[in-house]
Specification:
By secondary structure, the chain is an alpha/beta fold. It has two domains: 41 residues; 158 residues, Lysozyme-like, CATH 3.40.80. 39% of the residues lie in helices and 11% in strands. The protein starts with a helix and ends with a helix.
Length: 219
């Protein structure tokens, strides 16, 4: 009886090891497939089809950021997009464009919204912009800069709020992002960041109302 029990235990143990090993192998294969989904198009001889100068937001002006300030990707197929991060340039529109085109800056956002409401796109939404200071948030979000300074509420003009709300509403529609404060966040709310933008003068209640109204009207 005892020997049989011991033998039975050993057999169960071996079976468990085999099943566990198979599960681990399957898990590893799944992880490998997921990683391959992120990387396959970067293999030698494989190129993604892109239209030079194309914009994702109708009416935006295209000015390319330095390729050192973003990572080529194929979102949302390789990384899902579920956040919009609101930034303030802490400078003029021209200065923001200059640093985003500087390869030594190592940071850039997808869009810049000017005080007069004009929108410039510098990185395609399918690519990962280095804007949030957090790799996970970079991979899952769209970054929108706003011309001005956090301590100057007069910089946040009616034209800027309206244009930015139109842009964010379209992004949310495109990727199924809920219009709420969990998914529309400020740079200051990104984990690990030392930034304070968009600051206390950014009117979140007004902004979310505008985004919701714009999205509803478009629907």
């Amino acid at each position: 009886m005892g020997a049989r029990k011991n033998d039975s235990d050993r057999r169960i143990g071996r079976r468990a090891l085999l099943v566990g090993g198979a599960a681990a192998a399957v898990g590893t294969a799944v992880l490998a497939r997921e990683e391959l989904a992120h990387l396959w198009w970067r293999l030698p001889g494989v190129e993604k089809s892109r239209v030079e100068g194309a914009v994702d937001f109708r009416g935006a002006r295209w000015l390319a950021a330095s390729s050192a300030n973003f990572r080529w990707a194929d979102r949302p197929d390789d990384y899902s997009i579920d956040r919009v991060v609101i930034h303030v340039t802490q400078g003029s529109y021209a200065s923001a464009v200059k640093v985003f085109q500087d390869p030594d800056h190592r940071a850039a956002a997808h869009y810049i919204v000017r005080k007069d409401g004009r929108v410039t796109q510098m990185i395609r939404e399918l690519d990962v912009a280095f804007h949030a200071g957090n790799r996970d948030y970079n991979e899952r979000s769209i970054g929108i800069e706003h011309e001005g300074f956090v301590d100057r509420p007069e910089d946040f003009t009616d034209a800027m709020y309206t244009a930015s709300a139109r842009l964010t509403a379209e992004i949310c529609r495109r990727y199924g992002i809920p219009v709420d404060r969990e998914h529309l966040i400020g740079h200051v709310e990104v984990p690990g960041t030392d930034h304070t933008d968009p600051g206390e003068h950014w009117d979140w209640n007004r902004y979310l109302k505008l985004v919701r109204a714009t999205r509803t009207a478009a629907a």
